[in-house]
Target: Nicotinamide-nucleotide adenylyltransferase
Amino acid sequence: MRGLMMGRFQPFHLGHLDLAKQILDECDELIIAITSSQFNYLEKDPFTAGERIEMIHNSLKESSLDLTRCFVVSIENQFNVATWASYLKSTLPHFDKVYSGNDYVSMLLADSGIEVVIPKFLDRTQFNATRIRSMIISDENWKDFVPNAVYDLLTKINAKNRLAVISISDTNPTKH
Ligand SMILES: Nc1ncnc2c1ncn2[C@@H]1O[C@H](COP(=O)(O)OP(=O)(O)OP(=O)(O)O)[C@@H](O)[C@H]1O
Ligand SMILES: NC(=O)c1ccc[n+]([C@@H]2O[C@H](COP(=O)(O)O)[C@@H](O)[C@H]2O)c1
Model:
């Protein structure tokens, strides 16, 4: 049995790690699919697909999760929403069920005959990537909301500067 979780993971946080553990408890194998892989250096999508793969791989490794049971892959956002589920089936390794608490995603997948499981969430008011991005910019203590491996990577690439520049840049396409 293989379970799939998807998200932009901008950045990957402890709520995401908790979900990965839930799936590994319930399934033999886990696929983590990084969505919107073609977007980066944007306010809601600051990190590249490659950086997000590293965040996730390093986080699973430092938690001593069995990497031989995990796939970490990236997929692009699709213009045609109605064919999104077929795209997932053709692009990802085979999956048996998808873990998602999003009604919109559940509807799209259920309409295509894909089983959806609603996961338990770690307090979403605290563990959400939007909040963590804003804490990084304003220099609040965000270290406790992400795996150490993510903290190390974001510090190494100077995420604070990237987020700050993106949020004020006149050339940022999301500002127009
Ligand atoms: N606190 C959490 N606990 C458990 N799972 C979570 C939590 N937050 C998000 N997830 C799961 O992770 C997946 C990816 O979420 P996503 O990357 O959109 O995270 P997010 O923190 O909500 O991001 P953003 O705030 O940037 O929209 C979602 O399918 C959701 O089910
Ligand atoms: N058209 C598309 O490519 C499309 C459609 C629906 C969801 N998604 C993405 O799939 C992911 C699903 O995660 P959630 O279960 O948290 O909503 C999100 O990152 C969302 O952006 C992409």
